[in-house]
């Protein structure tokens, strides 16, 4: 298996990214698909594309995808309460998401106190080295939802994780989600206004988590999410 990663910039600003793991014979078609994504993205024109193709040498861990739910008026706070995530942690998370700083990855907060537990400052922690397999060929899953579902499944697979809140930084994409192992992947409509790159991802954890080991899993372990 090979890992394929694409990221595209404009003026050194991140515009879009994508990644998967595939067989040798699928490399060419995947690169073509990612070229299209890079050049025709709603976030704007690009002046730089980076492709990274690497042979996978570590064993791949298989994870079962979270289940998707969608309700008209889903509420972040009530989902969070059901996972024992305290108000103060939600407030902090929303501050990170609405701030002017665009973090390049997720922020990890203590679900009880809201204290930030990762030390990545403006970078954030990125879930990477993963792939999504739509085993049932379900047509409700477009590429964007597949990516988000894969990332959410990896994040929430650790027993010390209580949940995750995500708002896309894509300009006009206003559907966010709250995910947890207990409640699945819950889509939240109109989570932000259109025409803004404001967004972010926050992971709520139990303070007892071994954070180094968790970050190593998110960033480096090859993960296959099966739907
Ligand atoms: N958002 C913003 N900036 C990003 C980024 C992202 N998702 N991914 C990479 N960058 C930028 C950062 O400046 C990064 O430097 P940093 O590590 O100091 O933050 C730099 O590119 C190099 O990152 P690197 O990890 O070496 O990139 P890569 O080529 O190995 O992987 C991605 C690129 C986009 C595939 C990967 O980082 C990633 O984010 N995968 C998650 C999947 C994804 O983004 N799907 C699309 C959903 S919108």
Overview of this protein structure:
With 227 residues, the chain is of the alpha/beta class. Helix content is 25%, strand content 30%. The chain is built from 5 helices and 12 strands. The protein has a 6-stranded mixed β-sheet, sandwiched between helices. Strands 2-1-3 form a 3-stranded antiparallel β-sheet, with helices on one face. The chain has a 3-stranded parallel β-sheet with strand order 4-12-7, with helices on one face. Strand 9 (176-180) and strand 10 form a beta hairpin. The chain is globular and about 50 Å long. Residues 5, 7, 14, 17-19, 50, 52, 104, 123, 126-128, 147 line the site of coenzyme A (COA).
Tell me the layout of helices and strands.
Blueprint: E1 2-10, E2 13-22, H1 27-39, E3 48-55, E4 61-64, E5 68-70, H2 76-82, H3 87-98, E6 107-110, E7 130-133, H4 143-156, E8 161-167, E9 176-180, E10 184-188, E11 200-205, H5 211-220, E12 223-226
Parallel strand pairs: 4-12, 5-10, 6-11, 7-12
Antiparallel strand pairs: 1-2, 1-3, 8-9, 8-11, 9-10
The structure holds coenzyme A (COA).
The site of coenzyme A (COA) has 14 residues, from strand 1, strand 2 and strand 3.
Please state how the strands of the largest beta sheet are arranged side by side: 5-10-9-8-11-6
The biggest beta sheet reads:
6 strands, mixed
Order of helices and strands: EEHEEEHHEEHEEEEHE
User: Termini distance?
Assistant: 19 Å
**Low-pLDDT residue intervals, each spanning 5 or more residues:** none
Quaternary state of this entry equals single chain
Mean model confidence by pLDDT: 95
Count every helix, treating DSSP H or I runs of 4 or more residues as helices.
Answer: 5
Estimated radius of gyration: 17 Å
Structural class: alpha/beta
Bound molecules: coenzyme A
Shape category? globular
Percentage of helical residues? 10-25%
Portion in strands: 25-35%
What is the number of strand segments? 12
């Amino acid at each position: 298996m090979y890992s394929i990663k694409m990221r595209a910039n404009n003026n050194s600003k991140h515009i879009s990214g994508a990644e998967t793991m595939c067989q040798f014979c699928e490399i060419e078609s995947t690169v073509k698909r990612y070229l299209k994504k890079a050049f025709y993205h709603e976030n704007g024109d690009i002046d730089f594309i980076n492709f990274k193709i690497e042979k996978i040498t570590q064993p791949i861990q298989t994870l079962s995808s979270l289940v998707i739910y969608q309700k008209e008026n889903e509420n972040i706070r009530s989902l969070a309460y059901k996972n024992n995530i305290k108000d103060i942690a939600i407030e902090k998370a929303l501050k990170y998401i609405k701030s002017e700083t665009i973090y390049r990855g997720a922020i990890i907060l203590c679900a009880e106190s809201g204290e930030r537990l990762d030390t990545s400052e403006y970078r954030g922690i990125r879930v990477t080295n993963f792939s999504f397999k739509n085993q049932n060929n379900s047509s409700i899953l477009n590429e964007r939802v597949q990516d988000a579902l894969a990332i959410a499944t990896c994040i929430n697979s650790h027993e010390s994780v209580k949940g995750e809140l995500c708002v896309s930084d894509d300009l006009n994409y206003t559907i966010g989600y709250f995910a947890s192992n207990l409640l699945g992947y819950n889509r939240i409509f109109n989570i932000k206004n259109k025409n803004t790159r404001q967004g972010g991802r926050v992971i709520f954890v139990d303070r007892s988590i071994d954070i180094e080991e968790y970050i190593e899993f998110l960033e480096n372990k090859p993960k296959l999410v099966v739907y």
